[in-house]
Amino acid sequence: MKIVILCGGKGTRLGLGDLPKPMVPVDGIPLLERLVGQAAVQGFDDFIFLAGHGAGHICDHFGSGARWNVTIEHVVEAEPLGSAGCFRQIRDALNAPFIVLYGDILHDVDLAAFAEFGREKGGAGTLFVHPNDHPEDSDLVEIDQTDRIVAFHAKPHPPGARYSNLVSAAIYYLNPAVLDFIPPVGACDWGHDVFPRLCREASVHGYRSAEYAKDVGTPARLERAASHLREGRVARLSHLNAKPVVFVDRDGVVNEERGGILTPQDVALIPGSAQAIRMLNQAGIPVICVTNQPFIAKGQLTWRGLGAIGGEIDHQLAEAAGAYLDDLRICPHHPESGWMDEIPELKIVCACRKPAPGMLLDAAQFHNIDLSRSWMIGDRYCDIEAGRRAGTRTILVETGFAGSDHDTFAIAADAIMPDLATAITAIMEGRL
Ligand SMILES: [Mg+2]
Ligand SMILES: [Zn+2]
């Protein structure tokens, strides 16, 4: 599979003189060289570099790629045509699915796992998506329960908008048919000019990963990325390495339990929960929300309605503390019949409705999670039992239902804490 790396971009803001941005050293090695090296280790050996400004420096450094045991084709654009426009000149070289990377994004993504997901989903392509701590000034995507991107919201967002916090991280798996969506002339960008229409007219999926991917476009971002690299965070978060996470139940843990959250107006964060989640975000520990939402099966809530509630929670987390959930796993099922508008195919005994551990186990496989070093935090023993069956350590919090189902589950949690904030603080301080 070919990997196309966008290598344009001036390094002026980074004080690189006439060196292009992808040649910026990150902890001593040019970023572009890191990207090639990582992909080569994973077995990718066929690259196209799309360069413009400072192309000579890149060509001199990499040559044919022999030093990395890869093949590099250097393509130089005469004038800047944007991130998508420059693909016109390599159109004929792309006759099978390919991966697109940007030379100013530091990442350590398991590209084979990403491509496999894209291949299984099919359609026009798959975008690597993740939340960030400033969704209000980011382009946001909305994905449905099948991971299909159903909306693409370019910034600026209208006042009062409550979108889910999912941002395209500029790593793409694309089928060649996508090239037909690039306007025939002029400068154009993937994010601005191609994806909004592509997501409307074709099937594009989101790969919601907690792997590290951040741009290094300013001195402050570069320094942050370099320090993350040195402390091992970049590699630790890769799908190639098993990692601990914190699983959290949603209602009664992150936001107040209201006997079912059926509209965005029902969403009120439990005090301190956003700040606590932010602590995990800053420490580079993925936070994965696992929630039973039987209201879908009962016909009381649509997927779209559930998405709006998720958007409200994301918005409140971001607004309160720049916090975010790395993933959200939902069980829409319910085992018993008898509701007027119920959806029969969701009225099943499934493997994901807590206390079954299915959501945690699926997440563990998808994100390569070390369950024995992970935590499950919930307000019911039903959550604790799910964590116990999955093999995590468990904390019951005394918000929401505060363990009122103890008679049903004769089990103990590893710890009982007043709320999410004290639970996460205790985990972070190593007191548990
Ligand atoms: Mg709960
Ligand atoms: Zn289920």
Count of DSSP E strands?
19
- What's the structural domain tally? 2
Hey, roughly how much beta strand do the residues contain?
Answer: 15-25%
Mean pLDDT equals: 95
Highest-level CATH class of the largest domain: Alpha Beta
Spans where pLDDT lies below 50 across 5 or more residues = none
Shape, please?
Answer: globular
Count of runs of 4 or more consecutive helical residues: 12
User: What is the makeup of the main sheet?
Assistant: 7 strands, mixed
In CATH terms, what is the fold-level topology of the largest domain? Spore Coat Polysaccharide Biosynthesis Protein SpsA, Chain A
Termini distance? 46 Å
Could you describe the 3D structure shown?
The protein is of the alpha/beta class. The mean pLDDT is about 95. It has two domains: about 1-235, Spore Coat Polysaccharide Biosynthesis Protein SpsA, Chain A (Alpha-Beta Complex), CATH 3.90.550; about 240-430, HAD superfamily/HAD-like (Rossmann fold), CATH 3.40.50. The strands form five sheets. The protein has a seven-stranded mixed β-sheet with strand order 5-4-1-6-11-8-12, sandwiched between helices. It has twelve helices and 19 strands. The chain is about 30% helix and about 20% strand. Helix 8 (about 275-285) crosses helix 9 and helix 8 (about 275-285) runs parallel beside helix 12. A hairpin with a 2-residue loop joins strand 2 and strand 3 (about 30). It has helices at about 30-40, 55-60, 80-85, 110-120, 190-200, 220-230, 235, 275-285, 305-320, 360-365, 380-390, 420-430; strands spanning about 1-5, 25, 30, 45-50, 70-75, 100, 105, 125-130, 140-145, 150-155, 165-175, 205-210, 215, 245-250, 285-290, 325-330, 375-380, 395, 415. The protein binds magnesium ion (MG) and zinc ion (ZN). Zinc ion binds near residues 331, 333, 350 and 352. The site of zinc ion (ZN) has 5 residues, from loops.
